[in-house]
Amino acid sequence: MADPVNLTVDGISVSVEPGTTILKAALQAGIDTIPTLCYHDYCTPNGLCRVCVVEVEGSRTLIPSCCTKATEGMKVTTRTPRIERARRTLLEMLASTVDLSDAPDAQQMITEYSAAPQRFPEAAQRRYPVLDDNPMYIRDYNKCILCWRCVQVCAEDAQFTYAINFSGRGFETRIDTFYSLPILSTTCVVCGQCVGVCPTGALKARREWQLEQGQSMDEIIAASTDDRTLRKRSANRQQP
Amino acid sequence: MPESDLDLSPLRSILQDLLPKGRSALLPSLHAAQDLYGYIPSPAASEIASALHVPLSEVYGVIEFYSMFSSQPVSKTIIHVCNDPACAMAGSDALMKNLIRQYSDANAKNGDEIVVERAPCLGLCEMAPAIMIKDIQRGHVDASGAGRLLEEFGEKPYSIIGGDAHELTQNCGKHRPTTIGEYVAGGGYNALRKVLSMDPAAVIAEVKASGLVGRGGAAFPAGLKWEGAAKEAARPKYVICNADEAEPGTFKDRVLLEEDPHRILEGLIIAAYATGAHQGYIFLRGEYTNAFVAMTYALKEAYASGLLGQNILGSEFDLELELFRGAGAYVCGEETALFEAIEGKRGFPRMKPPFPTTKGLFGKPTVINNVETLSNIRSIINMGAAEYRKTGTEKSPGTKLFCLSGDVAQPGLYEVPFGISIRHLIYDLAGGVRGGRQLKAMLFGGAAGAFADAASLDVALSFEELRAHGLPLGSGVITIFDETRDLRDALSRLAYFFADQSCGKCYPCQLGTRRQMEIIERMAAGKMLPGDRARLEDVGWTMTDASLCGLGQTAASAVLSAIKLWPEYFVENRS
């Protein structure tokens, strides 16, 4: 086995296996307070949300801990005013853009970092109609924080179905299908992996969503006859 | 025409030729479809996806990312009016208004045949205001814009060359590409001949000794980069010329590409020889259509003369070069985003490390150099590092191209040795502020740069001196604003630029560029809210500190510099 890598996290010395990320090294040092939003243990980390940033001695910018590997002699600090400003501002910008009502982790972080969800007045929000186009799950991109987990599990991180990708760019980026086709007209196999990894309720089991909308179980069951017809049609579907 | 009636046969025959390139044929295929149909209809996208074995959703994701591709029908003619500060000072807003008025009657009759849109910097800042119609660029466009044929607008772009030195620009100023005959007659490709008899390590040693650093903005030592890639064991290796010039205010690479393409090729071939690469790309900004023509022809000439292909000039060395067109995304000037574009993906920058010299294009060791950096190679090899270093300063050897635009008497491209003062460049060489007015501000390094005022005029133009004064050299842009200018307008254009060009990958930039633009728009309208200045600073520092790539890390640079210099602009005037 290769030699372990020695570093300090908030002054605590720790030895980790080569290839260990700063986030995992911190955990090993007993520091479990680095927040993460886009990170998922079973998905390829992309360093998107940047709330996991830390200070590394000698580095010009803050460093994302979820996807940066620990190196020999590294000195990591996980909480400073500079880090707090970045985390707080990121949460405030996110809260001014996306509906976080179904995202308990983000809400808890907002409280912890004394972030003001209303900090940015007159701010453009992402507003999209809820997509209810299949019997299994709904897509409510008002709640999407663009963590990419659904796109990744639909592709190489799990299912290799490639039903979803992105449309737009920058602030206007959205998770989308080929030419925004309804989900059953795509390569989607309704495996549900995307729903499983969504951290903010943007993807949700349709029945759960129907109950939240105030429908009764009786209404839902009565309507599910229609769903079965839909499903049969999807089995016979043609490629676009 | 309904999409089911779409004739896919011309696309199919193009795809046949592109197939061997695999997924890296995606952008070229989409360019072909966009040209054939005026947009990319979904059957065409499906055809491309199945031919290249790329998932449908990912093809759509790529179409949606690049602004030169459209998934929806667009009008037949789009007039792009440059929105950069230099063009704005020359009246681009009035021009745009007049054009819209002029075509509104025609459009009412014939449907939206002509659409007028604002465009990110077209790289014609010295000929402001500039427009682009299809693949035709025009500068010095009359702001009244009225009553003429599209092709008759303004003037064909030409370069205005000045300065104390004429090393990199020795073949420029002809307003046409230097032919291979002319290039060789002036000593061209002698450096390549010399290099082919040298040990690659000796070539790298010479470039290292020259002290040449990258001219794209990051100022990384070129020799170290070459050495890094040369040391890697992985094969194949790649060399890339980064010609994705899109920094607002920058046009130096466009002039070199249009007027002296062989100087760039010679540098790139030498880079390939030194690092052991046998394949390379010239990644050219999609909007640079004149440079595309010039470089396409230069490549043809080079292949015909045995300067590319197998056994270059009778040696054992082989190199294939391909010209690759970008598709409208500023972020692809970032080297890892550029790799993604060649690989047929959305131009999302990658995390670094690994650095390109270890894992670059297709995950292989890659040397990527800017156009101007490569243009220096010939001089370094011909004169030797010691002689090369006699120009410039000790820490910034050689000459540098500066793009001067805005309120300057003679806007243009200036080549000067490093170390002259800003004052000398602006007042002695470029004729000073236009109309004899006072200087209010200079924007250094483009949108990603920083503002300075007249107090900085005696700072020397070298990496070390500028750094000491907190000014970025960047890509060599200086946009000049006279005393009558309201810099709030320039700031709002810069803020719009970054919001428009953010790729959307990391949150600080995806969200921060939009929030920054919103606050700057309030500022420009004189309607800042209480707390806006603190918001602006928090957003700015968060982008600077926490963004994934250089775009986000510099998106607040000009704004933060303006807050320091002109706090009076940032008064909260609404309660």
Structure in a nutshell:
The complex is a heterodimer of chains A (240) and B (575). By secondary structure, chain A is α+β, with helices and mostly antiparallel strands.
- Large-scale geometry of chain B: globular
Major sheet details of chain A: 5 strands, mixed
Poorly predicted runs of 5 or more residues of chain A: none
Assign the CATH class of one domain in chain A. Answer: Alpha Beta
- CATH architectural group of the largest domain in chain B: 3-Layer(aba) Sandwich
Class per helix and strand makeup of chain A: alpha+beta
Strands side by side in the biggest sheet of chain A: 2-1-5-3-4
Overall geometric form of chain A: globular
Biggest pleated sheet of chain B: 6 strands, mixed
Order of helices and strands of chain A: EEHEEEHHEHEEHEHH
Low-pLDDT runs of chain B: none
- CATH architectural category of one domain in chain A: 2-Layer Sandwich
The oligomeric status of these chains comes to heterodimer
**What level of helicity do the residues of chain B show?**
40-55%
Instruction: Please tell me how large the radius of gyration of chain B is.
Output: 23 Å
User: How many separate helices of chain B?
Assistant: 23
Number of DSSP-assigned strands of chain B = 14
Please describe what this structure looks like.
The complex is a heterodimer of chains A (240) and B (575). By secondary structure, chain A is of the alpha+beta class. Among the domains of chain A are: 5-79, Ubiquitin-like (UB roll) (Roll), CATH 3.10.20.740; 137-223, 2-Layer Sandwich (Alpha-Beta Plaits). Chain A has helices spanning 22-28, 81-95, 104-112, 149-154, 193-197, 206-212, 217-235; strands spanning 5-9, 12-16, 53-56, 63-64, 75-77, 137-139, 165-167, 174-176, 203-205. Chain A is globular and about 60 Å long. Chain B folds into five domains: 3-65; 77-150, Glutaredoxin, CATH 3.40.30; 162-388, NADH-ubiquinone oxidoreductase 51kDa subunit (Rossmann fold); 399-482, Ubiquitin-like (UB roll) (Roll); 487-570, de novo design (two linked rop proteins) (Up-down Bundle), CATH 1.20.1440.230. Chain B is built from 23 helices and 14 strands. In chain B, the strands form three sheets. Chain B has a six-stranded mixed beta sheet with strand order 5-11-10-14-12-13, sandwiched between helices. Chains A and B meet through helix 2 and strand 7 of A and helix 3, helix 4, helix 19, helix 20 and helix 21 of B.
